[in-house]
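Researcher: I'd like a structural prediction for the single chain below. Treat it as a standalone chain; there are no partners to consider.
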Amino acid sequence: MEGLKHRPHVICITEINPKNIVSIIKKSELKFQVYSLFCTNLSKAGSRGVLIYVADNIRATCVELAIKFNEYLLIRLKWMVRISISVIYIEVQIVMKTITQNSCSL
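Model: Treating it as a single chain, here is the predicted structure.
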């Protein structure tokens, strides 16, 4: 990110796990200075995983949804305004329906 004129506030990455996990990826190996790290299914066999970096100057909390599908992250950001960002791997319809139904509480 050294070549960027402005550092991104939020970075979202899907498929953080290789298809064939050979070794365990530790959360500490994925940390960047000046970013908070949120991830799901890190090094979980049969799962691809999702990761979100949020700039440290933005208050961020992870929001859990009452669904069985777990290849998603929903993050609530509070900076100058309240913003929700979601990264979804695959079953978009299930997660989006749940987010839409719960949007007033986000």
